[in-house]
Amino acid sequence: MDFDLVVRNGTVVTASDIWESCDIGVKNGTIVAVGPRLPAAPGAEEIDAEGAFITPGGVDAHVHLSQVTTVGVDIDRSIVTNGAVPDPENFVGDTFDTGTRSAVAGGTTTVITFASQMRKDESIIPVIEDYHKLAKDQSYCDYAFHVIITNPTPQIVEDEFPRMVDEYGITSVKLYMTYKPLRLLDYQILDVMYSARKLGITTMVHAENADVIDWMTQHLEKKLMTQPYHHGTSRPPIVEAEATNRVICLAELMDTPILLVHISGGPASKHIRDAQTRLLPIYGETCPQYMFLLADSMRKGDFEGAKCICSPPIREDKADQDAMWTGVKNGTFTIVSSDHAPSKFNHPNGKQRGLSDGNLPYGKFRLIPNGLPGVETRVPLLFSGGVLSGRISPQKFVEVTSTNPAKLYGLKKKGSIAPGFDADLVIWYPQATVLPFSLTNEMLHHAVDYTPFEGIEFKNWPRYTIIRGKVVFSHGEVVGKMDYGRFIKREKSLLAGPRDVWLSEWRP
Fold it and tell me: Which one, out of 94, 160, 362, 471, has a CA that is 20 to 30 A from the CA of 145?
Protein backbone atom coordinates (compact mmCIF):
# COMPACT_ATOMS: atom_id res chain seq x y z
CA MET A 1 0.00 0.00 0.00
CA ASP A 2 1.07 3.60 -0.61
CA PHE A 3 1.96 4.96 2.84
CA ASP A 4 4.17 7.90 3.78
CA LEU A 5 4.76 6.43 7.24
CA VAL A 6 4.19 3.05 8.84
CA VAL A 7 4.50 2.60 12.60
CA ARG A 8 5.04 -1.09 13.21
CA ASN A 9 4.71 -3.59 16.02
CA GLY A 10 2.93 -1.42 18.56
CA THR A 11 0.38 -2.01 21.29
CA VAL A 12 -2.24 0.42 20.03
CA VAL A 13 -4.60 1.88 22.61
CA THR A 14 -7.86 3.73 22.01
CA ALA A 15 -10.53 4.77 24.49
CA SER A 16 -12.23 1.41 23.99
CA ASP A 17 -9.65 -1.15 22.82
CA ILE A 18 -6.07 -2.43 22.96
CA TRP A 19 -4.56 -4.11 19.89
CA GLU A 20 -1.23 -5.86 20.22
CA SER A 21 1.29 -6.40 17.39
CA CYS A 22 -0.44 -3.70 15.39
CA ASP A 23 0.73 -1.39 12.58
CA ILE A 24 -0.51 2.09 11.66
CA GLY A 25 -0.39 3.33 8.09
CA VAL A 26 -0.27 7.08 7.41
CA LYS A 27 -0.80 9.02 4.17
CA ASN A 28 -0.74 12.80 3.84
CA GLY A 29 -0.87 13.24 7.59
CA THR A 30 -3.96 11.06 8.04
CA ILE A 31 -4.30 7.53 9.39
CA VAL A 32 -5.52 5.34 6.52
CA ALA A 33 -5.02 1.83 7.91
CA VAL A 34 -4.67 0.08 11.25
CA GLY A 35 -3.90 -3.63 11.43
CA PRO A 36 -1.21 -6.32 11.59
CA ARG A 37 1.63 -6.60 9.05
CA LEU A 38 0.64 -3.71 6.80
CA PRO A 39 2.48 -3.91 3.46
CA ALA A 40 4.43 -0.80 2.53
CA ALA A 41 6.00 0.34 -0.71
CA PRO A 42 9.74 1.06 -0.86
CA GLY A 43 10.52 4.56 0.35
CA ALA A 44 7.92 4.73 3.07
CA GLU A 45 9.28 5.82 6.43
CA GLU A 46 9.01 3.11 9.06
CA ILE A 47 9.20 3.31 12.86
CA ASP A 48 9.44 0.17 14.99
CA ALA A 49 7.48 0.62 18.21
CA GLU A 50 9.12 -2.55 19.56
CA GLY A 51 5.89 -3.70 21.18
CA ALA A 52 5.48 -0.52 23.21
CA PHE A 53 2.24 1.33 23.77
CA ILE A 54 1.05 3.71 21.06
CA THR A 55 -1.58 6.19 22.22
CA PRO A 56 -3.31 9.07 20.46
CA GLY A 57 -1.58 12.43 20.76
CA GLY A 58 -2.65 14.27 23.86
CA VAL A 59 -5.27 17.01 23.61
CA ASP A 60 -4.75 19.56 26.39
CA ALA A 61 -7.91 21.66 26.48
CA HIS A 62 -6.84 24.13 29.19
CA VAL A 63 -3.59 25.95 28.43
CA HIS A 64 -2.68 29.62 28.98
CA LEU A 65 -0.05 30.85 26.50
CA SER A 66 1.05 34.36 25.48
CA GLN A 67 -1.49 35.91 27.83
CA VAL A 68 -0.11 39.39 28.38
CA THR A 69 -2.52 40.20 31.18
CA THR A 70 -2.24 38.57 34.57
CA VAL A 71 -4.92 37.70 37.10
CA GLY A 72 -4.36 39.99 40.06
CA VAL A 73 -3.25 42.92 37.89
CA ASP A 74 -6.14 45.33 37.37
CA ILE A 75 -6.02 45.85 33.60
CA ASP A 76 -9.46 46.63 32.20
CA ARG A 77 -8.68 46.82 28.47
CA SER A 78 -6.82 44.39 26.24
CA ILE A 79 -3.29 45.29 25.20
CA VAL A 80 -2.91 45.37 21.42
CA THR A 81 0.18 43.30 20.67
CA ASN A 82 0.18 43.06 16.86
CA GLY A 83 1.76 39.65 17.27
CA ALA A 84 4.60 40.46 19.68
CA VAL A 85 4.52 39.99 23.45
CA PRO A 86 5.25 43.45 24.87
CA ASP A 87 8.27 43.84 27.14
CA PRO A 88 9.35 40.19 26.84
CA GLU A 89 12.01 40.61 29.56
CA ASN A 90 9.20 41.07 32.07
CA PHE A 91 6.86 38.41 30.66
CA VAL A 92 6.79 35.60 33.22
CA GLY A 93 4.71 32.90 31.52
CA ASP A 94 5.06 30.73 28.43
CA THR A 95 4.58 32.07 24.93
CA PHE A 96 3.24 29.96 22.06
CA ASP A 97 6.72 28.87 21.04
CA THR A 98 7.98 27.80 24.47
CA GLY A 99 4.62 26.40 25.61
CA THR A 100 3.98 24.27 22.55
CA ARG A 101 7.63 23.14 22.47
CA SER A 102 7.02 21.89 25.99
CA ALA A 103 3.71 20.31 24.95
CA VAL A 104 5.15 18.12 22.19
CA ALA A 105 8.00 17.03 24.48
CA GLY A 106 5.35 15.59 26.80
CA GLY A 107 3.20 13.88 24.19
CA THR A 108 0.61 16.61 23.64
CA THR A 109 -0.19 17.28 19.98
CA THR A 110 -3.06 19.78 20.29
CA VAL A 111 -3.60 22.58 22.79
CA ILE A 112 -6.61 24.82 23.28
CA THR A 113 -5.58 28.20 24.63
CA PHE A 114 -7.42 31.35 25.74
CA ALA A 115 -8.07 34.63 24.01
CA SER A 116 -9.07 36.86 26.91
CA GLN A 117 -11.55 39.72 26.81
CA MET A 118 -10.94 42.41 29.42
CA ARG A 119 -13.68 44.13 31.39
CA LYS A 120 -13.96 47.26 29.24
CA ASP A 121 -13.42 45.60 25.87
CA GLU A 122 -16.54 46.36 23.85
CA SER A 123 -15.92 43.64 21.27
CA ILE A 124 -14.34 40.19 21.29
CA ILE A 125 -13.44 40.29 17.58
CA PRO A 126 -10.26 42.40 18.01
CA VAL A 127 -9.31 40.17 20.94
CA ILE A 128 -9.54 37.06 18.74
CA GLU A 129 -7.73 38.73 15.84
CA ASP A 130 -4.85 39.92 18.01
CA TYR A 131 -4.48 36.54 19.68
CA HIS A 132 -4.23 34.93 16.25
CA LYS A 133 -1.28 37.21 15.53
CA LEU A 134 0.47 36.06 18.71
CA ALA A 135 0.09 32.44 17.66
CA LYS A 136 0.85 32.69 13.94
CA ASP A 137 3.93 30.64 12.98
CA GLN A 138 4.82 30.26 16.66
CA SER A 139 3.43 26.82 17.47
CA TYR A 140 5.09 23.41 17.40
CA CYS A 141 1.71 21.67 17.72
CA ASP A 142 -1.83 22.19 16.47
CA TYR A 143 -3.94 24.64 18.43
CA ALA A 144 -7.39 26.13 18.88
CA PHE A 145 -8.88 28.91 21.00
CA HIS A 146 -11.44 29.39 23.73
CA VAL A 147 -12.57 32.95 24.52
CA ILE A 148 -12.71 34.25 28.09
CA ILE A 149 -15.81 36.44 28.47
CA THR A 150 -15.74 39.24 31.06
CA ASN A 151 -18.15 41.77 29.50
CA PRO A 152 -21.10 39.93 27.93
CA THR A 153 -22.93 42.88 26.41
CA PRO A 154 -25.99 42.30 24.21
CA GLN A 155 -23.88 43.10 21.16
CA ILE A 156 -21.35 40.41 22.08
CA VAL A 157 -23.72 37.58 23.02
CA GLU A 158 -26.27 38.30 20.27
CA ASP A 159 -24.14 39.50 17.37
CA GLU A 160 -20.54 38.45 17.97
CA PHE A 161 -21.03 34.96 19.38
CA PRO A 162 -22.48 33.76 16.04
CA ARG A 163 -19.46 35.27 14.24
CA MET A 164 -17.13 33.64 16.75
CA VAL A 165 -18.62 30.25 15.89
CA ASP A 166 -19.17 30.60 12.14
CA GLU A 167 -16.22 32.74 11.05
CA TYR A 168 -13.57 31.85 13.58
CA GLY A 169 -14.44 28.25 14.44
CA ILE A 170 -14.42 28.93 18.18
CA THR A 171 -17.14 26.93 19.92
CA SER A 172 -16.36 27.41 23.61
CA VAL A 173 -16.21 30.25 26.11
CA LYS A 174 -14.88 30.44 29.64
CA LEU A 175 -16.55 32.31 32.50
CA TYR A 176 -15.18 33.21 35.92
CA MET A 177 -17.18 33.35 39.13
CA THR A 178 -14.15 34.76 40.94
CA TYR A 179 -11.24 37.22 40.38
CA LYS A 180 -12.36 40.84 40.42
CA PRO A 181 -11.17 41.73 36.87
CA LEU A 182 -12.89 38.68 35.36
CA ARG A 183 -15.87 37.59 37.45
CA LEU A 184 -19.44 37.62 36.16
CA LEU A 185 -22.65 38.00 38.12
CA ASP A 186 -25.24 35.24 37.91
CA TYR A 187 -27.39 37.47 35.66
CA GLN A 188 -24.50 37.78 33.21
CA ILE A 189 -23.83 34.05 33.34
CA LEU A 190 -27.45 33.44 32.35
CA ASP A 191 -27.04 35.83 29.41
CA VAL A 192 -24.06 33.83 28.16
CA MET A 193 -25.78 30.49 28.73
CA TYR A 194 -28.87 31.66 26.85
CA SER A 195 -26.85 32.49 23.76
CA ALA A 196 -24.53 29.49 24.12
CA ARG A 197 -27.47 27.10 24.09
CA LYS A 198 -28.77 28.46 20.78
CA LEU A 199 -25.36 28.31 19.10
CA GLY A 200 -24.06 25.01 20.49
CA ILE A 201 -21.25 26.70 22.42
CA THR A 202 -19.66 24.80 25.31
CA THR A 203 -19.55 27.00 28.42
CA MET A 204 -16.59 26.47 30.74
CA VAL A 205 -16.85 27.79 34.29
CA HIS A 206 -14.26 28.53 36.97
CA ALA A 207 -16.47 27.99 40.00
CA GLU A 208 -15.43 29.58 43.31
CA ASN A 209 -17.41 31.92 45.56
CA ALA A 210 -15.68 35.28 45.13
CA ASP A 211 -17.29 37.00 48.12
CA VAL A 212 -16.25 34.25 50.51
CA ILE A 213 -12.68 34.36 49.19
CA ASP A 214 -12.49 38.15 49.58
CA TRP A 215 -13.92 38.00 53.09
CA MET A 216 -11.63 35.20 54.19
CA THR A 217 -8.55 36.86 52.68
CA GLN A 218 -9.24 40.17 54.40
CA HIS A 219 -9.70 38.53 57.79
CA LEU A 220 -6.66 36.28 57.39
CA GLU A 221 -4.52 39.34 56.66
CA LYS A 222 -5.72 40.97 59.87
CA LYS A 223 -4.33 37.96 61.71
CA LEU A 224 -1.10 38.06 59.64
CA MET A 225 -1.98 34.62 58.23
CA THR A 226 -0.56 35.49 54.82
CA GLN A 227 1.97 32.70 54.20
CA PRO A 228 1.63 30.88 50.86
CA TYR A 229 -0.03 27.95 52.63
CA HIS A 230 -2.94 30.16 53.72
CA HIS A 231 -3.97 30.59 50.11
CA GLY A 232 -5.67 27.26 50.73
CA THR A 233 -7.07 28.45 54.06
CA SER A 234 -8.88 31.24 52.22
CA ARG A 235 -10.50 28.79 49.82
CA PRO A 236 -11.64 25.64 51.63
CA PRO A 237 -13.45 23.02 49.52
CA ILE A 238 -16.88 24.43 50.39
CA VAL A 239 -16.01 27.63 48.47
CA GLU A 240 -15.63 25.61 45.29
CA ALA A 241 -18.57 23.34 46.12
CA GLU A 242 -21.06 26.20 46.66
CA ALA A 243 -20.19 27.86 43.36
CA THR A 244 -20.23 24.53 41.54
CA ASN A 245 -23.70 23.74 42.80
CA ARG A 246 -24.91 27.26 41.98
CA VAL A 247 -23.72 27.23 38.38
CA ILE A 248 -25.14 23.73 37.88
CA CYS A 249 -28.50 25.15 38.96
CA LEU A 250 -28.14 27.98 36.44
CA ALA A 251 -27.24 25.50 33.70
CA GLU A 252 -30.25 23.34 34.55
CA LEU A 253 -32.49 26.41 34.41
CA MET A 254 -31.12 27.27 30.93
CA ASP A 255 -30.88 23.62 29.78
CA THR A 256 -27.29 24.36 28.79
CA PRO A 257 -24.24 22.05 28.78
CA ILE A 258 -21.35 23.28 30.92
CA LEU A 259 -17.90 22.10 31.89
CA LEU A 260 -16.69 22.75 35.44
CA VAL A 261 -12.96 23.36 35.03
CA HIS A 262 -10.07 22.33 37.30
CA ILE A 263 -12.16 20.72 40.07
CA SER A 264 -10.04 20.11 43.16
CA GLY A 265 -12.24 18.78 45.95
CA GLY A 266 -14.56 15.91 46.76
CA PRO A 267 -17.61 18.07 47.62
CA ALA A 268 -17.60 19.81 44.22
CA SER A 269 -17.09 16.53 42.38
CA LYS A 270 -20.10 15.11 44.23
CA HIS A 271 -22.30 17.94 42.92
CA ILE A 272 -21.14 17.14 39.39
CA ARG A 273 -21.74 13.43 39.85
CA ASP A 274 -25.23 14.03 41.26
CA ALA A 275 -26.09 16.23 38.26
CA GLN A 276 -24.82 13.60 35.84
CA THR A 277 -26.87 10.94 37.62
CA ARG A 278 -29.93 13.10 36.85
CA LEU A 279 -28.78 13.04 33.20
CA LEU A 280 -27.91 16.73 33.07
CA PRO A 281 -25.24 17.61 30.43
CA ILE A 282 -22.74 18.60 33.11
CA TYR A 283 -19.09 17.80 32.48
CA GLY A 284 -16.10 17.92 34.79
CA GLU A 285 -12.38 18.55 34.43
CA THR A 286 -9.60 17.96 36.93
CA CYS A 287 -5.84 18.41 36.71
CA PRO A 288 -2.71 16.46 37.70
CA GLN A 289 -1.86 18.87 40.53
CA TYR A 290 -5.01 17.77 42.35
CA MET A 291 -4.25 14.10 41.68
CA PHE A 292 -0.56 14.04 42.63
CA LEU A 293 0.04 16.89 45.11
CA LEU A 294 -1.27 17.83 48.55
CA ALA A 295 -1.33 21.18 50.35
CA ASP A 296 1.88 20.51 52.25
CA SER A 297 3.56 21.50 48.97
CA MET A 298 2.60 25.09 49.89
CA ARG A 299 4.36 24.82 53.29
CA LYS A 300 7.88 24.41 51.84
CA GLY A 301 10.36 26.96 53.21
CA ASP A 302 9.32 30.50 54.05
CA PHE A 303 8.12 31.34 50.55
CA GLU A 304 8.96 28.26 48.46
CA GLY A 305 5.35 27.14 48.73
CA ALA A 306 4.38 29.99 46.37
CA LYS A 307 5.45 27.68 43.54
CA CYS A 308 2.36 25.56 44.19
CA ILE A 309 -0.25 28.32 44.45
CA CYS A 310 -3.11 27.87 42.01
CA SER A 311 -6.86 28.30 42.18
CA PRO A 312 -8.69 26.32 43.30
CA PRO A 313 -5.89 25.40 45.69
CA ILE A 314 -4.23 22.03 46.05
CA ARG A 315 -6.11 20.34 48.86
CA GLU A 316 -4.93 19.33 52.31
CA ASP A 317 -7.05 16.23 52.84
CA LYS A 318 -5.97 13.11 50.97
CA ALA A 319 -9.67 12.25 50.69
CA ASP A 320 -9.98 15.09 48.18
CA GLN A 321 -7.06 13.73 46.18
CA ASP A 322 -8.62 10.26 46.25
CA ALA A 323 -11.91 11.77 45.08
CA MET A 324 -10.14 13.07 41.97
CA TRP A 325 -8.93 9.59 41.07
CA THR A 326 -12.37 8.14 41.76
CA GLY A 327 -13.93 10.82 39.56
CA VAL A 328 -11.59 9.98 36.70
CA LYS A 329 -12.34 6.27 36.99
CA ASN A 330 -16.13 6.55 37.29
CA GLY A 331 -16.54 9.19 34.58
CA THR A 332 -17.38 12.20 36.75
CA PHE A 333 -14.39 13.90 35.16
CA THR A 334 -14.76 13.94 31.41
CA ILE A 335 -11.25 15.25 30.84
CA VAL A 336 -7.93 15.80 32.61
CA SER A 337 -6.22 19.03 31.56
CA SER A 338 -3.06 20.76 32.74
CA ASP A 339 -4.39 24.29 33.37
CA HIS A 340 -0.87 25.34 32.38
CA ALA A 341 -0.77 28.92 33.68
CA PRO A 342 2.75 29.46 34.98
CA SER A 343 4.60 32.40 36.42
CA LYS A 344 8.35 32.24 36.94
CA PHE A 345 9.35 31.92 40.58
CA ASN A 346 12.54 33.99 40.59
CA HIS A 347 11.15 37.05 38.85
CA PRO A 348 9.79 40.25 40.43
CA ASN A 349 6.69 40.07 38.22
CA GLY A 350 6.26 36.36 38.88
CA LYS A 351 5.71 34.57 42.16
CA GLN A 352 8.06 37.06 43.88
CA ARG A 353 5.27 39.65 43.69
CA GLY A 354 4.01 38.04 46.86
CA LEU A 355 6.98 39.57 48.71
CA SER A 356 6.32 43.13 47.55
CA ASP A 357 4.08 44.31 50.39
CA GLY A 358 5.52 43.22 53.70
CA ASN A 359 5.19 40.36 56.20
CA LEU A 360 8.58 39.07 55.13
CA PRO A 361 9.91 36.44 54.71
CA TYR A 362 6.49 34.92 54.07
CA GLY A 363 4.90 37.60 51.92
CA LYS A 364 1.20 37.77 51.16
CA PHE A 365 -0.53 35.00 49.26
CA ARG A 366 -3.05 37.51 47.91
CA LEU A 367 -0.37 39.02 45.68
CA ILE A 368 1.13 35.78 44.37
CA PRO A 369 0.15 35.06 40.74
CA ASN A 370 -2.00 31.95 40.58
CA GLY A 371 -1.06 29.08 38.32
CA LEU A 372 1.39 26.25 37.71
CA PRO A 373 3.34 24.87 34.75
CA GLY A 374 2.12 21.47 33.59
CA VAL A 375 1.59 21.16 29.84
CA GLU A 376 4.63 18.90 29.43
CA THR A 377 4.04 16.70 32.47
CA ARG A 378 0.26 16.06 32.15
CA VAL A 379 0.39 13.07 29.79
CA PRO A 380 3.47 11.38 31.34
CA LEU A 381 2.09 11.85 34.88
CA LEU A 382 -1.19 10.16 33.99
CA PHE A 383 0.57 7.39 32.09
CA SER A 384 3.22 6.67 34.72
CA GLY A 385 1.23 7.42 37.86
CA GLY A 386 -2.08 6.19 36.49
CA VAL A 387 -1.64 3.41 33.94
CA LEU A 388 1.68 1.94 35.08
CA SER A 389 0.69 2.17 38.76
CA GLY A 390 -2.55 0.31 38.03
CA ARG A 391 -4.85 3.16 39.12
CA ILE A 392 -6.50 3.55 35.70
CA SER A 393 -6.64 1.42 32.58
CA PRO A 394 -4.80 2.37 29.38
CA GLN A 395 -8.18 2.97 27.74
CA LYS A 396 -9.28 5.36 30.50
CA PHE A 397 -5.98 7.22 30.12
CA VAL A 398 -6.65 7.73 26.42
CA GLU A 399 -10.25 8.72 27.11
CA VAL A 400 -9.48 11.56 29.53
CA THR A 401 -6.25 12.88 27.97
CA SER A 402 -7.20 12.72 24.29
CA THR A 403 -10.50 11.27 23.09
CA ASN A 404 -12.92 13.10 25.37
CA PRO A 405 -11.24 16.51 25.05
CA ALA A 406 -11.48 16.15 21.28
CA LYS A 407 -15.16 15.17 21.45
CA LEU A 408 -16.10 17.79 24.02
CA TYR A 409 -14.57 20.61 22.01
CA GLY A 410 -15.45 19.57 18.47
CA LEU A 411 -12.01 18.45 17.25
CA LYS A 412 -13.44 15.84 14.92
CA LYS A 413 -10.12 14.57 13.51
CA LYS A 414 -8.28 14.39 16.82
CA GLY A 415 -8.26 12.02 19.77
CA SER A 416 -8.25 8.50 18.35
CA ILE A 417 -6.26 6.02 16.30
CA ALA A 418 -8.48 5.04 13.38
CA PRO A 419 -8.73 5.64 9.63
CA GLY A 420 -9.68 9.24 8.87
CA PHE A 421 -8.15 10.71 12.02
CA ASP A 422 -5.06 12.90 12.02
CA ALA A 423 -1.93 10.83 12.55
CA ASP A 424 -1.23 12.32 15.97
CA LEU A 425 0.55 9.59 17.91
CA VAL A 426 2.65 9.03 21.02
CA ILE A 427 5.01 6.06 20.98
CA TRP A 428 6.25 5.14 24.44
CA TYR A 429 9.41 3.28 25.39
CA PRO A 430 9.16 -0.50 25.76
CA GLN A 431 8.64 -0.82 29.49
CA ALA A 432 11.46 -3.33 30.00
CA THR A 433 13.97 -0.76 28.69
CA VAL A 434 13.05 2.08 31.07
CA LEU A 435 14.70 2.77 34.40
CA PRO A 436 12.52 4.88 36.73
CA PHE A 437 13.81 8.42 37.17
CA SER A 438 13.03 11.45 39.30
CA LEU A 439 11.90 14.53 37.41
CA THR A 440 13.90 17.75 37.50
CA ASN A 441 12.99 21.05 35.89
CA GLU A 442 16.13 20.89 33.76
CA MET A 443 14.58 17.97 31.88
CA LEU A 444 11.63 20.07 30.71
CA HIS A 445 11.26 22.36 27.72
CA HIS A 446 9.14 25.24 29.03
CA ALA A 447 10.39 28.75 29.82
CA VAL A 448 9.56 28.49 33.53
CA ASP A 449 12.19 28.15 36.26
CA TYR A 450 10.52 25.36 38.22
CA THR A 451 8.08 22.46 38.11
CA PRO A 452 5.73 21.61 40.99
CA PHE A 453 6.36 17.95 40.17
CA GLU A 454 10.09 18.10 40.95
CA GLY A 455 11.27 14.80 42.40
CA ILE A 456 8.25 12.71 41.38
CA GLU A 457 9.26 9.33 39.99
CA PHE A 458 8.39 8.54 36.37
CA LYS A 459 8.37 5.05 34.92
CA ASN A 460 8.10 6.04 31.25
CA TRP A 461 8.07 9.08 28.95
CA PRO A 462 7.09 9.61 25.31
CA ARG A 463 9.79 8.29 22.96
CA TYR A 464 8.23 9.80 19.82
CA THR A 465 5.57 12.44 19.41
CA ILE A 466 4.05 12.51 15.93
CA ILE A 467 1.72 15.22 14.59
CA ARG A 468 -0.07 14.66 11.29
CA GLY A 469 2.45 11.98 10.37
CA LYS A 470 5.56 14.02 11.17
CA VAL A 471 7.91 13.24 14.06
CA VAL A 472 8.22 16.39 16.18
CA PHE A 473 9.84 14.88 19.29
CA SER A 474 12.26 11.99 19.38
CA HIS A 475 14.29 10.48 22.21
CA GLY A 476 14.28 13.57 24.39
CA GLU A 477 14.76 16.14 21.63
CA VAL A 478 12.25 18.46 19.95
CA VAL A 479 12.87 17.95 16.22
CA GLY A 480 9.79 19.65 14.78
CA LYS A 481 9.63 23.21 13.48
CA MET A 482 8.04 26.08 15.36
CA ASP A 483 5.70 26.99 12.50
CA TYR A 484 4.39 23.44 11.97
CA GLY A 485 1.34 23.82 14.21
CA ARG A 486 -1.97 24.71 12.57
CA PHE A 487 -4.97 26.60 13.92
CA ILE A 488 -8.02 24.33 14.00
CA LYS A 489 -11.51 25.66 13.42
CA ARG A 490 -13.72 23.55 15.64
CA GLU A 491 -17.22 22.19 15.32
CA LYS A 492 -19.84 21.95 18.04
CA SER A 493 -19.31 19.48 20.86
CA LEU A 494 -19.88 15.84 20.01
CA LEU A 495 -21.03 15.05 23.56
CA ALA A 496 -24.59 15.27 24.85
CA GLY A 497 -26.21 18.69 24.62
CA PRO A 498 -29.50 20.29 25.72
CA ARG A 499 -32.31 17.93 26.74
CA ASP A 500 -35.32 20.21 26.17
CA VAL A 501 -36.33 19.65 29.79
CA TRP A 502 -37.50 22.74 31.68
CA LEU A 503 -38.12 23.80 35.27
CA SER A 504 -41.02 26.15 34.52
CA GLU A 505 -43.23 27.35 31.67
CA TRP A 506 -40.44 29.62 30.43
CA ARG A 507 -38.78 28.61 27.16
CA PRO A 508 -35.92 30.29 25.25
Answer: 471
